[in-house]
Amino acid sequence: MSGSRSRTGVHLVTYWRPRQSSADDIAQAFLKQLAEFRRRYGWMDRAACAEVGGDTWFPEKGEPTDAAKQVCKRCPVKAECLDFALETGDRHGVWGGLSERQRRDIQRARERQAAA
Question: Rounded to 5 degrees, what angle do the CA atoms 56, 85, 75 make?
Answer without folding.
Answer: 55
